[in-house]
Amino acid sequence: REITRAKVKLRRLATQADAASYIAEVEVALESLRSSLGATATVPLMAVAQDILESTAAPFGQGDYGVAMERATQAEQLIALVADNQVRPGSPPRVPREVPLQVAIPLKVIVDSKLRRKPIGNAPVVAVLKKDSPLLVHAYKGNWMQVETEDGRLGWIDQLRLGPR
User: Fold this and answer.
1) Long-range contacts of 156-160 (CB under 8 A, 24+ apart)
2) What does DSSP assign to residue 151?
């Protein structure tokens, strides 16, 4: 947690060069993941990461380098999530672990969905979320995202039901 707080502080003090370099690193990571998955792979969260990465241009252009770096961090976390969930041929199956995010990612529900108590399909339902409900993502476990609703409810939702806000 201390490391995360320190990183957030550093992002707030970011210079133009820091932000440009970091955004470029995240763009390279996204392209690297794309090439490793193959040209025909379609992973919805990669499109969300691309959208978030593109949204860094406005704050960067306005000199708000901290916001630009925070958005780049959100994109980087989604890229890491996609890479972490890829099944590699010949590797033994693994049990997904819960991974907390450094920076919460604002997303929305793209179809009416059930918010579940645990990251499994038959877990008790906490709430039913309507399409376009805004959420903050705090962690992921496998294909599940731990989210918080606007009214403060916490739960898990499948990543395929989420899109950019």
Assistant:
1) 156/115, 156/116, 156/117, 156/118, 156/119, 156/123, 157/109, 157/113, 157/114, 157/115, 157/116, 157/129, 158/113, 158/121, 159/44, 159/45, 159/81, 160/44
2) T
79: nearest Cα among 31, 39, 38, 119? 31
Distance between CA atoms of residues 51 and 46, nearest Å: 9
Give the C-alpha separation, 154 to 115, whole Å.
8
Per-residue pLDDT of the chain (165 residues; tens, 9 = 90+): 676 666 666 666 678 898 999 999 999 999 999 998 876 667 888 889 999 999 999 999 999 888 898 899 999 999 998 888 876 666 676 778 899 998 899 999 999 999 999 999 999 999 999 999 999 999 999 889 999 999 999 999 999 999 988
